[in-house]
Amino acid sequence: MAFEGLSERLQKTFAKLRGKGKITENDVKEMMREVRLALLEADVNFDVTKTFIKTVRQRAIGSEVLDSLTPAQQIVKIVNEELTKIMGTSAVGLNKSPKIPTIIMMVGLQGAGKTTSAGKLVKYLQEKDKARPLLIAADVYRPAAIEQLKTIGQQLNVPVYDEGIDHDPVAIVQHGLKQAQENKNDYVLIDTAGRLEIDDQLMDELAKIKEIAEPDEILLVVDSMTGQAATHVAEGFNDQLDITGVILTKLDGDTRGGAALSIRSVTGKPIKFVGSGEKLDALEVFHPERMADRILG
Ligand code: GDP
């Protein structure tokens, strides 16, 4: 489960305070040192950690805590509120176009879980919105990716538009969108190509697709298990494409949680969903406040 390490360390730190009737500024200082280490060990971005610690410290040495009869509880409350804040305060839903179709472009590095997340999102929209989506297979560099998307389409009973691997992805998207218009699909999800790392050619292609598709959402899919690297990837994609949100995958295997805690603050873009397994129903709306509760146990 996510955040095991961080959870345990924070809980231990706060447990030390519980025995004390009153706490001093020095206690706060010591505690914040431990919280800082716990966050860095969880692979939270350095600047995010620094700002977080500063804010919590300022609030914690205020009279509301030091004069309180339950200072440990007050501090946990402050940490909870600030953790929630760095993750974006409240859940952010999907953008929806006033006229159909709503176009969602999925981007991300290879292996992040882009194709799987496209399938999960289709299932989510089918259940929530009775959606009739079309999937477009625009990852022409990996034949396996197209096959994978087709399999997902079959599983969910959703059409997949593809032209194999011999065509220009920009043209494929154009043709796919035309088909969606004709078939009156209410959502279109475009599965784009990924690479092992961000490169100019990939970004150029994605920028072209963005230009012609005018998506309502550009969702970046990142692997939470890569920690700070995921945060860097998010920064890179956001600089180039001005993404609208993030799907953070593989939270089920991420024991640290640094990406979940950093991405919003670093990019300014919300984490909209988290992936918590390989199955198509393993997608959850990201709720910062619930995540903070989970971290603090
Ligand atoms: P893509 O290259 O970005 O399209 O990545 P895929 O969708 O093919 O996913 C790569 C691998 O990650 C596959 O084995 C997926 O089953 C797995 N995967 C995707 N999302 C999750 C998740 O949330 N949790 C787990 N445990 N595995 C996932």
TrEMBL record:
<comment type="similarity">
    <text>Belongs to the GTP-binding SRP family. SRP54 subfamily.</text>
</comment>
<keyword id="KW-0378">Hydrolase</keyword>
<keyword id="KW-0687">Ribonucleoprotein</keyword>
<keyword id="KW-0342">GTP-binding</keyword>
<protein>
    <recommendedName>
        <fullName>Signal recognition particle protein</fullName>
        <ecNumber>3.6.5.4</ecNumber>
    </recommendedName>
</protein>
<feature type="domain" description="SRP54-type proteins GTP-binding">
    <location>
        <begin position="270"/>
        <end position="283"/>
    </location>
</feature>
<keyword id="KW-0733">Signal recognition particle</keyword>
<comment type="subunit">
    <text>Part of the signal recognition particle protein translocation system, which is composed of SRP and FtsY.</text>
</comment>
<feature type="binding site">
    <location>
        <begin position="108"/>
        <end position="115"/>
    </location>
    <ligand>
        <name>GTP</name>
    </ligand>
</feature>
<keyword id="KW-0547">Nucleotide-binding</keyword>
<keyword id="KW-0694">RNA-binding</keyword>
<feature type="binding site">
    <location>
        <begin position="191"/>
        <end position="195"/>
    </location>
    <ligand>
        <name>GTP</name>
    </ligand>
</feature>
<feature type="binding site">
    <location>
        <begin position="249"/>
        <end position="252"/>
    </location>
    <ligand>
        <name>GTP</name>
    </ligand>
</feature>
<keyword id="KW-0963">Cytoplasm</keyword>
<comment type="function">
    <text>Involved in targeting and insertion of nascent membrane proteins into the cytoplasmic membrane. Binds to the hydrophobic signal sequence of the ribosome-nascent chain (RNC) as it emerges from the ribosomes. The SRP-RNC complex is then targeted to the cytoplasmic membrane where it interacts with the SRP receptor FtsY.</text>
</comment>
